[in-house]
Amino acid sequence: MRLKSLRIRDFRNIEEAAIEPGPRATVVYGPNGHGKTNLLEAIYLLATLRPLRTTRYAELPRFGAECAEVTGEWEVAGSDREISVRLEEGKRIARLDQKRVRDLEAYFGGISVVAFTPDDLQVIKGGPELRRRHLDRAVFNRFPAFLGESRAYTKALRSRNRLLKEEAPTEMIEAFDGPLAQAGARIVMRRRALLAELGPRFQQTLASLSKGQLEGSLRYRSEFAPAKADEATVRDALAAALRERLEKDRARGYTGVGPQADRLEFVLGGRAARSYASQGQQRALVLAWKIAEIENLRDHLGYQPLLLLDDVSSELDPERNRQLLAYLEAFDGQVILTTTDPGPLLGRDPGQTLYLAVREGRFRTSSAEEAAQVVPNRPKIE
Fold it and tell me: Do 253 and 245 meet the contact criterion of CB atoms below 8 Å apart?
């Protein structure tokens, strides 16, 4: 799988751009606030139909523009595919080979992307909703049908919550319990399936990154779903919990039980990492998660996903930076990364790397020699 070309119009601060990413790597460099992350977000939207940094499509078109459009040509299993996303009036329209998409699984077939951003480094100490979002992004990468399944759950949940706030009759509220339980059970099973695959890889990767000093694991906690239960049992358990807690939900005005309240925990040395992990250990945990996710996708897809890195190196300590660069050196897929400091990335894969300089939303092809002239205020790495 490879992204061969990209066209962007009126997306964020990018008025217009046409880019042919490098076969192996694309290094996008320039000052902060000029559009580096916007480029990655356009690619992420194209590959996932989800924004990278917001939940509202209306925020994505360039200021003053009526709509935005991103189009990419991909090589998948030896064939070319053109996919595009148009954003207008807060909605999106996806097209595959210029035909409007009705079947999301056909749209996502063969396309896979993993993004690694500075926000991901906050996932250990952040709130449970941040870890759920982190988990669900990985579940979607592994199981693209999860997008439609999670939407079905969200739609039923919003309807039930609206009725709770309106103090609607019990029979109206309970009409949504069946769809909510069915969709909620599917979400739980998807999450558990992903964690069953990632768990051993995560442990091995963390041990390798820390030279055997850190022992970690992943733990999924649910108030209603019995451990190791099948989907029907989880569905029935959620339906029962919704009935039992109806009066509490009425008092609160929202549904308090379901996968929206479940928790992902990173465990370090048998204890919750959120409470005990140092900053260096947090970074090691997140890096281990990302590498485990990439390797898991490679084994199930038969090829590497597209890797998007948004200036992560500036947030990592020197040791994690060395580990990340060593991993990228051996990575045999396509990488698109942003940085204010291209120095450590120069001289890798000559002829296979594209250098792009960005200024005020405009991108131009550069060279390794020109990129070498950039001298940011970087700490010395011993």
Answer: no
- pLDDT the model gives residue 347: 64
pLDDT digits (tens, 9 = 90+) for 73-88: 999 888 999 999 999 9
- List all residues 6 or more positions away from 110 whose beta carbon is below 8 Å from its beta carbon: 1, 74, 76, 77, 81, 301
Q: Is 14 exposed, middle or buried (0-12, 13-18, 19+ CB in 10 A)?
A: buried
Q: Supply the DSSP string of 47-100, one letter for each residue.
A: HHSS-SS-S-GGGSBPTT-SEEEEEEEEEETTEEEEEEEEEETTEEEEEETTEE
CA-to-CA distance for 360 and 41, rounded, in angstroms?
Answer: 16
Extract long-range pairs of 369-373: CB within 8 Å, 24+ residues apart: 371/27, 371/29, 371/342, 371/343, 371/346, 372/342, 372/343, 372/346
The pLDDT tens digits for 326-355 are 888 888 899 999 998 887 777 666 678 899
CB–CB of 238/258 below 8 Å?
yes
Q: What pLDDT does residue 71 have? A: 97
User: What is the separation of C-alpha 274 from the centre of its chain, rounded to a whole number of angstroms?
Assistant: 20
* CB within 8 Å of 115: residues ≥ 6 apart: 40, 44, 52, 137, 308, 309, 310
| Residue 380 to residues 137, 287, 366, Cα–Cα distance (Å) | 34, 22, 25
In the predicted model, what is the mean pLDDT of the chain?
Answer: 91
* All residues at 6 or more sequence positions from 159 whose CB lies less than 8 Å from its CB, including other chains: 176
